[in-house]
Amino acid sequence: MFDSKEPNEVDFISRRMRMVDEQLQPRGITDSAVLAAMRTVPRHEFVPESQVSEAYHDHPLSIGHEQTISQPYIVASMTQELQLDRDSIVLEIGTGCGYQTAVLAEIVRHVYSIEFIPELLRDANDRLERLGYDNVTSMSGDGSFGWAEHAPYDGILVTAAAPSIPPALLSQLAEGGRMCIPLAMSDYSQELFLVKKSDGRITRKSLYAVRFVLLRGSFEG
Ligand code: SAH
Fold first, then answer.
1. Cα 51 vs. chain centroid, distance in angstroms?
2. For 91-213, where are the alpha helices, taking DSSP H only?
3. Active site residue 140
4. What is the mean pLDDT of residues 152-169?
5. Which of 147, 150, 37 is nearest to 158 (CA)?
6. Lowest mean pLDDT among 21-25, 147-151, 217-221
7. Beta strand pairing status for 67-69 and 89-93?
8. CB 132: neighbour CB atoms within 10 A?
9. What does the buried/exposed string (b/e) look like for 168-194 if buried means 16 or more CB atoms within 10 Å of the residue's CB?
10. How far is the CA of 46 from the centre of ligand 1 (A)?
11. Domain 59-210 is in which class?
12. Which of 122, 216, 219 most suits a substitution to test ligand 1, by most atoms within 8 Å of the C-beta?
């Protein structure tokens, strides 16, 4: 029997539109490609079943293995900071549930994504494949070393906090490329940084305070 209390696909679409109208646009998300991607990707397909009713709420959610899917605004804001287009090649560190990966895949030519925990990557790949994303290539491993084979990248997006910027990621950033990375300033404080490479020079700017899980592997603090 159809249970009228369970949200259906139409409910999810309207929640997604409301998320964009109420959480993203009023906070300065204006890039039309980012807004279109956030209206399109079915976030409820990426969260554990027990959290589906909260999929479009204005906060992060647990995805198991002590990891989290970021709040919708943070996903949209980091994506917007990279100034991507249809020709961009992007590297993502921390596939997690694959939601941010899907948002990127809606916008760019190709997404390369690295995830430390093989079980999370397997589930993310299943979802991305089921939803028809054919411009994503992923691997399990320590993203601190980047993925030299496919470099340089127009954008690099890191979704776990590092003590400092891993040098491999800087060297794999294209000329004119942008990287968004949370850095742990102390045990209690993290800031999101926008890093740019132009004329071979690196500049970095702090954007705002954030709270991400910590980067693991060789570069953890
Ligand atoms: N973007 C993800 C959120 C991920 S939480 C999402 O939308 O679901 C951070 C992720 O980074 C976790 O899945 C964690 O396992 C992964 N991670 C941590 N250290 C890593 C490393 N060195 N290399 C690759 N992934 C890493």
1. 19
2. 99-107, 118-130, 167-171
3. no
4. 97
5. 147
6. 217-221
7. unpaired
8. 8
9. bbbebbeeebbbbbbbbeeeeebbbbb
10. 14
11. alpha beta
12. 216
Token pair listed for 208: 């705002």
Average pLDDT value for residue range 90-103:
98
Sequence spans of domains, the chain: 59-210
Cα 104 to its chain centre, rounded Å, is 7
Tell me, what's the pLDDT at 51?
93
The confidence score (pLDDT) of residue 2 equals 52
Distance CA 97, CA 82 (A): 21
Q: What are phi and psi of 98, to 5 degrees?
A: 95, 0
Average pLDDT, the chain: 95
Q: Are strands 67-69 and 61-64 parallel, antiparallel or unpaired?
A: antiparallel
Pocket of ligand 1 (CB under 6 A): 63, 67-70, 93-94, 96-97, 99-100, 114-117, 120, 142-144, 159-160, 213, 215-217
Amino acid code (one letter) for 71: Q
In degrees to the nearest 10, what's the CA dihedral of 43, 153, 132, 144?
-60
Q: Is 212 exposed, middle or buried (0-12, 13-18, 19+ CB in 10 A)?
A: buried
